[in-house]
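Sat 14:20. Reprocessing the chain from the morning session after the first attempt stalled halfway. Input below, unchanged.
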Amino acid sequence: MSATFTVTVNARAMKAAAMCASDQETRYYLKGVFIETSAAGVTLTATDGHRLVAMTHAPATDAPHDATAPAVIVPLHMIDRLKIGKRAPDYLRLTIDATATPAKLTLSFDGLSITGEAVDGTYPAARRVAVAAFNSPDAGKIAHFNPAYVATFGKMAELMTGGKPPAIHVMPNGGSPALVDFLGDHDAAGVEAFGVLMPCRLGESRYAGRSVPAWYDPNPVPAAPAGAQDGDDSAEAA
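Finished this time. Tokens:
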């Protein structure tokens, strides 16, 4: 039985998913995109513990797709070398040589061949985080998010669709993981995706329950005349 497998992966999906991967050496097993294959297609997962993205697409037409390929973590340093221009092909070819440990990988894309090794580690149970986002008892409760992490999903949508998204739908779940719909109906090449954001734990805002600051109040209280004091009887004295 051959120990070499070939899978065709949406290149923009891989590049976009990498935006949610970790860059911390101590979390080396998160420094890449987790690729799983089946007869239904390809699933990509990436997370840094604060944000998570899951993407999937059906097998490419007339392209290699080995549904028995082992799951691998494609390292960021390989994905970083992919240059996704507007006229770039939709798909790349991932070859997995499982005779070695860790597996040897080759990304073939737009005339470029990138070689390396799979990240040697066990990917975390990301699906459990997704279940918590979809089934939170705190659905709709107010939450706070790191603005840079929200912006990441906007960048991912722009890469996938070729245009800036009008909005990113973040569905807060209070202190639980929030579901993010960043592609909507504007998916690319049949890609389906969703994101998950962990909320920030902040204290109460200094503006909570207060009126508009005096310096921006549209109906400010007129200032008392200079020199006037409570109980001033200067008018009667005059």
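The first strand starts at residue 4 and ends at 10.
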